[in-house]
Each structure stands twice: as structure tokens, then as C-alpha cells.
């Protein structure tokens, strides 16, 4: 069954890009392929950030346009649609809703930034996951 982890940022942190980069890096470092589900503006921000978030290196990633990725497969794919079969280990959901296909993944990561609207949407998603019986964990992050 899919495990769902919520990463709660301090109320003063409203941008989830740095945390998303760290989570992608950690998962990729464990050999896990990550699909980041995000809107176009977030994909743009993450695409740039993944090149430079860690000094001296970058995280192998590509934007996913619906066409199957070619070898060598990147560890991280960024997109706003349904992912390819090659990337069903970790879903980093930065979208506003729970994707219908989330349960194909071993793990789902949700980042809860400090703005009130995001927190409200994340509480609703937490409740939906819980009501459907998915195992949940919450991680309170510090600034």
C-alpha cells in the first residue's frame, strides 16, 4: 500500500522549491526514481533549481511531456500529467489535488508550505488519504 509523508514547513516558509529539491536528491540518492507532479510554473522553477541547488553538482532530471523517456533514464521527471511506467517509486505531489493515479506509487510526498491556502488544501488531502486507509506520516521541518 502507498505510504504518504507530509513535510510541514514553518509558517514563515511559503516556497516549497528548496524542500522539493532536497527530497528529490534524497530519494535519488537512495536509487529511487521520482515523479514530481506540479503545475507549469512550479515545473519551471524546479527545473532551474535542480541544476543549482547543491553547489558543484546537479540532479539528473527532465521535463516529462507525455512521451516515454529515453535511456539513460533520469532519476527525476517533472510534469503535470500521468507519469510513465518507469517512474512509480516516489511521487512528489506539488499539485493542488491528489492525482487519480497516486496509488501506483510506493510513496507519496506532500510538502505543506506556510501560506494559509496551501495548508488548508493539504489538510483536506491528509483527511482524504486517512479516510481511505493509507499509512500517513508527518514530518515537522525547521527553517
| Terminal Cα span | 31 Å
| Helical residues, percent | 25-40%
CA-based gyration radius:
14 Å
Summarize the biggest pleated sheet.
7 strands, parallel
pLDDT averaged over residues: 94
Any descriptors?
globular, seven-stranded parallel β-sheet, alpha/beta, 7 strands, 143 residues
Describe the protein's topology:
Elements: E1 3-8, H1 17-29, E2 34-37, H2 40-52, E3 61-63, E4 76-79, E5 90-93, E6 107-112, H3 116-131, E7 136-140
Parallel strand pairs: 1-6, 1-7, 2-4, 2-5, 3-4, 5-6
Structure description:
With 143 residues, this protein is an alpha/beta fold. It is built from 3 helices and 7 strands. It has helices at 17-29, 40-52, 116-131, and strands spanning 3-8, 34-37, 61-63, 76-79, 90-93, 107-112, 136-140. The protein has a 7-stranded parallel beta sheet, sandwiched between helices. Helix 1 (17-29) crosses helix 2 (40-52). The radius of gyration is 14 Å and the shape is globular.
Summarize the structure.
By secondary structure, this protein is α/β, with parallel strands linked by helices. The chain is built from three helices and seven strands; from the N terminus they run βαβαββββαβ.
Amino acid at each position: 500500500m502507498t505510504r504518504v509523508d507530509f513535510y510541514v514547513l514553518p509558517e514563515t516558509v511559503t516556497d516549497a522549491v528548496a524542500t522539493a529539491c532536497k527530497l528529490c536528491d534524497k530519494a535519488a540518492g537512495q536509487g529511487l526514481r521520482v515523479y514530481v507532479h506540479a503545475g507549469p510554473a512550479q515545473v519551471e522553477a524546479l527545473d532551474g533549481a535542480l541544476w543549482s541547488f547543491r553547489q558543484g553538482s546537479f540532479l539528473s532530471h527532465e521535463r516529462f511531456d507525455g512521451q516515454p523517456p529515453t535511456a539513460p533514464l533520469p532519476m527525476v521527471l517533472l510534469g503535470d500529467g500521468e507519469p510513465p511506467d518507469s517512474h512509480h517509486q516516489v511521487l512528489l505531489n506539488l499539485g493542488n489535488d491528489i492525482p487519480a493515479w497516486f496509488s501506483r506509487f510506493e510513496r507519496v510526498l506532500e510538502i505543506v508550505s506556510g501560506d494559509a491556502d496551501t495548508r488548508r488544501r493539504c489538510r483536506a488531502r491528509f483527511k482524504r488519504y486517512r479516510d481511505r486507509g493509507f499509512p500517513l506520516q508527518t514530518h515537522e521541518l525547521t527553517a
